[in-house]
Amino acid sequence: MLHADPLGYCELPAHFAPCEFRIKWADSAWERSEAHRLRRAVFCEEQGVFDGDDIDAIDAHAQLIVAVTQVGGMPDQVVGTVRIHEDRRSGEPGLWWGSRLAVAPAFRSHGKLGATLIRLAVTSAHARGCHTFLAHVQAQNLPLFRRLHWKPLQPETLHGRAHWLMQAELDHYPPCFDVFSGFVTRSTAGRSGVAA
């Protein structure tokens, strides 16, 4: 029996769940394409934040980070993504931003994917001279970011939705230089009924 998430993003047998995920900088065309597809599914179809597509001028110079399922040690599908970029308009080297954090609905209770995407986003920017890492975080995600050592700076409204401008506490994010290996996390779905 196959199980599809509400957006039809992926189909899995109801009893199957990948046990391992690699979170890394996207370095192939299929990873980038699937990351954009996932963003459209989450931000356009599921949330209705954007009409049709969420790609903007930042994508021309942003680095995509992906969470990829591993099946038999091989990459299978992109199930999470975030993008990072150094702010070129500010004239302040070392000011970085994260945005477009998305995890496929069928994988939101697996392996702390959102937290690990955030971790690689900040640690890889830190390794490239970041002294300040900011993000506009949807209000419902404020508790998650606080647990991950981010501090709220001010409430804002973006795209008609409540957000918080937040800053990562870099002391909790040591630099990560091996961005194409990134991090590996294991699935926690089904353990004690607790979602990651």
- State the low-pLDDT regions, or none: 191-196
Residue-averaged pLDDT, rounded? 89
Strand coverage percent: 35-45%
Portion of residues within helices? 10-25%
Structural class: alpha+beta
| Cα distance spanning the termini | 25 Å
Major sheet: size, sense and barrel closure? Answer: 8 strands, mixed
- What is the gyration radius calculated from CA atoms? 16 Å
Helix-strand topology string: EEEHEEEHEHEEE
Give, in spatial order, the strands making up the sheet with the most strands: 8-9-7-6-5-4-3-10
Q: Helical segment tally?
A: 3
**β-strand number:** 10
From the spread of the alpha carbons, the general shape counts as globular
Architecture blueprint of SSEs:
Blueprint (H helix, E strand, L loop, with lengths): L1 E3 L6 E3 L6 E6 L3 H18 L16 E9 L2 E13 L8 E9 L9 H15 L4 E7 L3 H6 L2 E9 L2 E8 L14 E4 L10
Question: What report would you give on this structure?
Answer:
The protein has 196 residues and is an alpha+beta fold. The chain is built from three helices and ten strands. Strands 8-9-7-6-5-4-3-10 form an eight-stranded mixed sheet, sandwiched between helices. The chain is globular and about 45 Å long. It starts with a strand and ends in a 10-residue tail after the last strand.
